[in-house]
Amino acid sequence: MRPGHLLCAAVMAALSQPATADVHIVPRPASVELSKGQFRVNEDTAIAFESGWPEAKALAAYLQSVLQPATGFAFRVSPLDKADVSANTIVLARLTQDAGAEAYELQVDSGGIRIAAPQAAGLFYGIQTLRQLLPPAILSDALVESVPWDVACVNIEDRPRFAWRGMLLDVSRHFMSMETLKKCIDTLALHKMNSLQLHLTDDQGWRIEIKKYPKLTEVGAWREETVIGHASKKPVKYDGKRHGGFYTQDDIRELVAYAQERFVNIVPEIEMPGHAQAAIAAYPELGNTGETLPVHTTWGVNENIFNAEESTILFLQDVLEEVLDLFPSTYIHIGGDEAVKKQWKLSPAAQARIKELGLKDENELQSYFIRRMDTFLTERGRRLVGWDEILEGGLAKGATVMSWRGVKGGVAAARAGHDVVMAPNTHTYFDYYQGDPALEPLAIGGNLPLDRVYRFRPIRSTFSEEEAAHILGVQGQLWTEYIATPDYLEYMAWPRMCALAEIAWTPQDLREYADFRQRLDTHTQRLDAMKVNYRKLDD
Ligand code: ACM
């Protein structure tokens, strides 16, 4: 037993308090040893950081900023070599052993708290765990009085199972404010999620300012109206209200910086060659028919796709050039899904292009298109990610596959030696219903209750070790055709994203639904404190 544990036990005996309740952390850490007793955070508690480690200094300020609002305490911050760490201090220290980039250790004894990590990301995740060891009210942004800010004596060693722990947010179908995105990033960070894919372009709206092609947002960011109710319901009715918006390049820089401070990487998605109607509405020469199209006003797969002319490929590479300037992400998503080939079949220009390039058919033309983007991104030190349709007609050399039509595409890609993010509609489409459709608000369809999400296993038992190593991780999808407001977005995302976070972080052998469900009873109090409009749990 460590001395700290003995001290805890002694204090406990002296105060003769009941034993500390079990800890309820989501996602569940790799190893938790609970001992008796607790540390009480009070108005004199200080924060100390590893001297000479600037990121630890920044994280000490972050820790102070997340503990101050609810407690009202000052939390004096100083470097370790200047601090009196004999007692009542939360220490952020360097862990010299190489436990992994995102690993951390957290020890609480009655004298203080120590979070140690080899790298800054680990310190950040240790801080998230500490927030969950405190009473849920710690997550309130307003002062909460009369709460004893007790932390159970505990020894945690933790690290993530997967490197890609993601959420996709579709800001094309419904534009979401900067405030909504920041709250979303904060909530993801609490769950140790580290990736936010922004679906920035689609038929119904182009949402990112591109300086070289201003009409993409002048025209493409606005649609005249939106279908009311489910798009499959006839007769189709429209609301007659203009909808739109876009992020300026300054907005994007602000958002990327905000996410970076929370160890969330933003993966931009620029769709091609399908889901292109908003761009074609802005620049009709990018299409196949020469027709002037409106930004699309209803939902569903659309046959208006980019043409495959050299000028269009160069246009899209110009767009990507500006995207690369804004997003430091190694991974750049180019969509690639649901590109209906009808217009390419009918277009003499597309057929001539297939001949000129010596290709067999339209699938190979799509593959050529994606390969050009792969080469472009690879030359710039980035990596292409695309939906599993990019397997059709031959996979580009450096491509990472996001498997959405079940796991089939992901399995095939891993077998072929490509990296994979598992994002199957069978388990990770959080635009699907999570309960009886008769009792739930309108959704796109499907049936994806919490327990089904939780039971998803990204790595099949039939995978070889090498194939398993190609599974980078998992992602939960929030497509927003039927999600028009921040409240409804939160309702669809949480607590299903809690389940996804646990798939992404927790060792498989520690994952058990009943145990997760029990921890959620505490965890939803945290979401309450953060004013997240999660869906209430079923009994
Ligand atoms: C997708 O849901 N079309 C990726």
Care to describe what's here?
Helix content is 34%, strand content 19%. The chain has an eight-stranded parallel barrel with strand order 8-9-16-17-18-19-20-21, surrounded by six helices. The protein has a seven-stranded mixed sheet with strand order 1-7-5-6-4-2-3, with helices on both faces. A two-stranded antiparallel sheet has the order 10-11. Helix 4 runs parallel beside helix 6 (249-261). It has 17 helices and 21 strands. It has 539 residues and is α/β, with parallel strands linked by helices. The two termini are 39 Å apart. The protein folds into two domains: 9-158, Chitobiase/beta-hexosaminidase domain 2-like (Chitobiase, domain 2, 2-Layer Sandwich); 167-505, Alpha-Beta Barrel (TIM Barrel). It has helices at residues 3-15, 54-71, 120-133, 178-190, 215-218, 249-261, 277-282, 310-326, 342-346, 348-356, 362-379, 408-415, 450-454, 465-469, 486-493, 496-505, 513-529, and strands at residues 31-41, 46-49, 77-79, 89-94, 104-109, 112-117, 149-158, 164-170, 195-199, 201-202, 205-206, 222-223, 227-228, 237-238, 243-244, 265-272, 331-335, 383-387, 400-403, 420-422, 471-478. Acetamide (ACM) binds at residues 337-338, 387, 404.
